[in-house]
Amino acid sequence: MGVVIVLISPFIYFTSAKEERYPAFFRWSRIWARWVLRLMGYYRKTDKKYWLDKDQQYIIIANHASELDIMMSLAIVPNCFVFIGKKELANVPLFGYFYKRTNILVDRNSIASKREVMIKARKKLENGIGLCIFPEGGIPDPSLKMAPFKMGAFKLAIETGVPILPITFPDNKKHFPEIFEGGYPGRLRATIHLPIETKDLTVADLPDLKNQCYDLINEELTRYDFK
Fold first, then answer.
1. Which of 159, 164, 152, 139 lies closest to 61, judged by CA?
2. Global confidence as pTM
3. CATH number of 43-223
4. Domain locations in the chain as residue ranges
5. 81 CB contacts (<8 Å, ≥6 apart)?
6. What is the pLDDT of residues 173-204, one digit of tens each?
7. What is the SS3 assignment for 114?
8. Are the CB atoms for 130 and 81 separated by under 8 Å?
């Protein structure tokens, strides 16, 4: 991670300096993610149930079981987006500096922080930039297949009418469970599911939408024999 960031640092420093330059920064972020995965010995295999509309913004959701989820999301989705992620990632050397400079960080223990995040997220969507949210709220206990989904991503999708793009990562956990818990190179598969439209939904549909997305990803993980 550090080597690639240092190599492209002049470009990502310049493009992250102003909000209007973010699309250019996003392109460099994708280069960073792809090269980090290559240098770690991974190759990607994506099952596309849907070919992404390059002019469409999405609220991307995925199961979250590894730090690789961030890099894989960047590597396989070309549509410009920012992450909503935990504030602790800002402490990661080099990576954290650019992460907090360009993405939306949340303190999961602060109600005020969560409210502020929703305001910032709506502003990004209004400016045509998508979001990537891991609705489990963090990497769950390793014994769990998936943690219950939180409501935030689905509430934003209904309020803004932006479609949800579900993604399943079946291999990231076994290849890179935690930084100090082993892992190995190899194939990283991903499934990009059909987007779920939200334009005609209301707040009353929120539980059903959340459950629909959870069941979709859970069924795909079962198909891959994810544990």
1. 164
2. 0.93
3. 3.40.1130.10
4. 43-223
5. 26, 57, 58, 60, 129, 130, 131, 132
6. 999 987 667 789 999 999 999 999 999 999 99
7. helix
8. yes
